[in-house]
Write a structure and sequence with these properties.
It is globular and about 45 Å long. Strands 4-1-7-6-10-9-8-12 form an eight-stranded mixed beta sheet. The protein has six helices and twelve strands. Strand 8 and strand 9 form a beta hairpin. With 220 residues, it is α+β, with helices and mostly antiparallel strands.
Length: 220
């Protein structure tokens, strides 16, 4: 088994989007070659930054906050998309902060914890729901639907213990909840299987932010 590592650390380089009602966006993420401090950004809609110092967010209604402090996407899933789309895809294109290697991001259990480097500890919260800005950035027809049909959303994470992250840091899985529901499974249920999503509310160890989001989605 290969060692799981952070292949790239990516921060926003703001640009203008022509996606409807979007304007300025931070989805354009570019790799940096220095350590980046990571800390909890606070509740959604209260700040213009992610959990990574220097990473800007503009659509604070839909992005950011403690449960979306960090976004991780696996290089292996980029490679799969490259074969599907017939073109090269650079790390950071999907808007992730951490491009990983040797880590099954979509197979991560909801609420599992990772140690990244020496100090930083993160906890998975949910998968990334595609949006119009993402489709604009990709330039692929019906990208929202296509991305949503696959179980490769990448993972949002909250900050359990702050610390620095840089390319080359090792990623170690510290704990996995016994419920066994993965990022990929829950992403599919959110978009396509409301009955299964309702069952998740009974799980022990489900992130509380996700529990609240599910209740809202189900109108409870």
């Amino acid at each position: 088994m290969s060692t799981a590592t952070v292949l790239q650390v990516n921060l926003a380089v703001p640009e203008l989007s022509n996606a409807k009602r979007v304007g300025r966006t931070g989805i354009n993420k570019q790799p940096v070659d220095h350590p980046v401090a990571v800390r909890a950004p606070g509740p959604k809609r209260t700040g213009l930054h992610s959990g990574l110092v220097g990473d800007q967010i503009f659509d604070i209604d839909h992005h950011g906050g403690d449960d979306q402090a960090v976004y991780a996407y696996a290089r292996e899933d980029y490679d799969w998309w490259e074969r599907e789309l017939g073109r090269e895809l650079a790390g950071g294109l999907f808007g992730e902060n951490l491009t990983t290697a040797g880590l099954d991001v979509n197979g991560a259990i909801l609420g599992e914890t990772w140690r990244v480097g020496d100090e930083l500890v993160l906890q998975t919260t949910f998968g990334r729901i595609p949006c119009a800005t993402f489709q604009w950035k990709m330039g692929e027809p019906r990208w929202v639907k296509r991305f949503g049909a696959e179980r490769r959303p990448g993972a949002y994470l909250r900050v359990v213990r702050p610390g620095n992250v840089r390319a080359g840091d090792r990623v170690e899985i510290l704990d996995r909840p016994a419920h066994g529901v993965t990022i990929a499974e829950s992403f599919h249920a959110w978009l396509h299987d409301a009955a299964r999503l309702r069952e998740y509310l009974e799980l022990d160890g489900l992130p509380e932010g996700l529990r609240a989001d599910i209740n809202r989605k189900l109108g409870r």
